[in-house]
Amino acid sequence: MRPRGERWSVPDPGPGAPERVGDVLTGVLGALGLTEALARQGAIVRWREVVGERIAHVAKAITVSSDVLFVQVDSSAWLSELSLMKQDILRRLNAGQKEGRIEKIVFTLSERSGKGS
Prior knowledge:
By secondary structure, the protein is of the alpha+beta class. The chain has helices spanning 21-31, 35-51, 53-58, 76-94; strands spanning 59-65, 68-73, 104-109. β1 and β2 form a beta hairpin. α2 (35-51) crosses α4 (76-94).
């Protein structure tokens, strides 16, 4: 037993000490060359915030391949409108992004567009 009032000292962990999982994962992703690809996937998550609820309701960010974001749109009218807005959307998607920048957006008509949606 330790005497009353005495504090425990924590030894210096030294080499071979456990590492934080986040640090290990960051290192592994970097070593595999996946950091940039993973950062690009964030565009799917940011889509709704960037375009707003109204557009997000009719245009869904589906996937990222290389540096291209693919978006499915519910109607040809919206596809045309979004095509005109493409550069502005790209600028907002990439704002503040040091890694994982999107270079191109491809809009396609969704399968449900022909079903009266």
